From TrEMBL:
InterPro entries: A-crystallin/Hsp20_dom, HSP20-like_chaperone, Small_HSP. Residues 41-180 form the SHSP domain. The keyword Cytoplasm applies. It is found in: Cytoplasm. Keywords: Cytoplasm, Stress response. This is SHSP domain-containing protein. GO terms for cellular component: cytoplasm. It comes from the Eukaryota. PROSITE patterns: SHSP. GO terms for biological process: response to stress. It comes from Urochloa decumbens. Residues 87-121 are annotated as: Disordered. Belongs to the small heat shock protein (HSP20) family.
Length: 187
């Protein structure tokens, strides 16, 4: 009778090892749960829709939907490592009372979930995310960082990144071989 011990290919062994490796991450999540603001900002980042296309000229065009965002609240920058960062903040309109910061939760007695009231304005449903957002896009090495253009129109931010012209292929350089008199004399 042969006794077989589980090895690296054994599924039970692999599952046990994975649980042991995941233990520090799980412990970190339990001891340091994410803050409510972090979760809100992560959702805002994930819910900022963006289309990216490459034109035949090699230019990259990013279109980011930002309805209700003031162009003054949008920031486009290139960070180290050729990473294009688009960030901003969507604020509650001032006529809702958000400018004064007078936000009062509903009385909680029989009201609908998510119902909020702000200085005379009663929200029955809030689906548009307010707060900060950010999207990052790594640019290729051929991107011309000096010619980046950003245009905001009808709630859509369009960022155009042109590419540097392709370098001319180097032609082989022909070197003329000189014949010296010393070479002919030796023969």
């Amino acid at each position: 009778m042969e006794l077989a011990l589980g090895g690296f290919g054994d599924p039970a062994f692999s599952a046990a090892m994975q649980q042991l490796l995941d233990l520090p991450d799980e412990l970190e999540r339990q001891l340091n749960p994410p803050t409510r603001a972090y979760v809100r900002d992560r959702r805002a980042i994930a819910n900022t829709p963006m289309d990216i296309k490459e034109l035949p000229s090699g230019a990259i065009v990013l279109a980011v939907d930002m309805p209700g965002v003031s162009p003054a609240d949008v920031k486009v920058q290139v960070e180290e490592g050729n990473v294009l960062t688009i960030s901003g903040e969507r604020k509650r309109p001032a006529e809702d009372g958000a400018a004064e910061g007078k936000q009062v939760a509903s009385d909680g007695g029989g009201g609908a979930a998510g119902e909020k009231q702000q200085q005379g304005v009663k929200y029955l449903r809030m689906e548009r995310r307010m707060g900060k957002f950010m999207r990052r896009f790594p640019l290729p090495e051929r991107a011309d960082l000096d010619s980046i253009k950003a245009e905001y129109k009808d709630g859509v931010l369009t960022v155009t990144v042109n590419s540097k012209p392709k370098p001319e292929p180097k032609k082989p350089r022909v070197v003329q071989v000189q014949i010296t008199n010393d070479e002919h004399q030796g023969k």
